[in-house]
Fold this protein.
Amino acid sequence: MGRRRLALTIALVTFFVRAASAQEDAERRWGVSIWGVSYHINRSIDYDEANVGLGVRYLFNKYFFVEADALRDSNRGLVLPVSAGAELGFKSIGPCRLAAVAALTLAYYQNLRTESDYFKFGPVPGAAITCGRAKTNIVVILSPSRQPIAALAASLTILF
């Protein structure tokens, strides 16, 4: 009888802990993204490796999100991207989750290097590692030129 009670107690505690964790995750709808670094494939141009800025992310559920950011980009100008995307988790590493990210982004660029302003629209693939309330994001900035990857940029999103 003692083993059955212990097994039932463990099963109930596990169930309620998972249910509470799922409820807590479901309520983490908002996040603040902190942008920091980038790496550019084309090293012949004097890009700034610091892409400093902030953003706000809203999660509709664990798969779909929208995000709006404001940052100083690699051309030392202002960039204002707005993205809608999906995140598909495919691997758990302990308490963390690795996911593939696909987003469509519309971005306004103020390019001080070329003294021009312009908009870009297109896909932005990436990856994310979520551990509790912290989400590390790495995105791939695509280019229509011969070199399909223009840059890699990273941010940290703190979920509330």
Q: What stands out?
A: The mean pLDDT is 86. Helices lie at 2-27.
